[in-house]
Hints:
- By secondary structure, the protein is mainly α.
- It contains eight helices and no strands.
- The longest helix has 38 residues, at 5-42.
Amino acid sequence: MRTDRPRATHARRNAAASKNDEFTAFMREAKDPLHRMAFLLSGDAHRAEELTQQTFERCYRHWHKARQGDPLVYARRVLANLRIDTWRRTRREILTGPDELPQDHVAAPRSARTPTRTVDDRDAVVRALLRLPVKQRRVVVLRHLLDLSESEVSSELGIPLGTVKSTASRGLAHLRTILDIDAPGGTR
Length: 188
């Protein structure tokens, strides 16, 4: 009596190896963009690492769904949802009010750019992003910092195109106010 059991086991091993190789390649490619997005959404390097790892873990568990379309789009959506879930679960975050943030980032002219000044500017932008409401922050990060089109942001977040446009506009206006930037092309 012959059985096909060893062949079936071998086929499953090959499929698992193929899935692992495919996912490993995706991880290498998506690690930096996802970490950057996580940092911009959370404002904390350690939380960003945790969110990125959790995103990869969820994507691996649901790889059959993630690879049906663009896996990076799937991963970004998972990451955004994880950030919201984390915020809801741990509402013990101490949010700093607008009056409590240091205002020493505002006064340097553009000609005084140094590497230290660039880091200060990035820090000021991240702090300003943290002051935006979650919905505005998600749209501004995806649209303007990750450079997605309005329709891509709309499909990724599952919100109408008009909502993306108005939320991005309000978010940028709020950021300009926070950073004390005069006009869309203005300077600090």
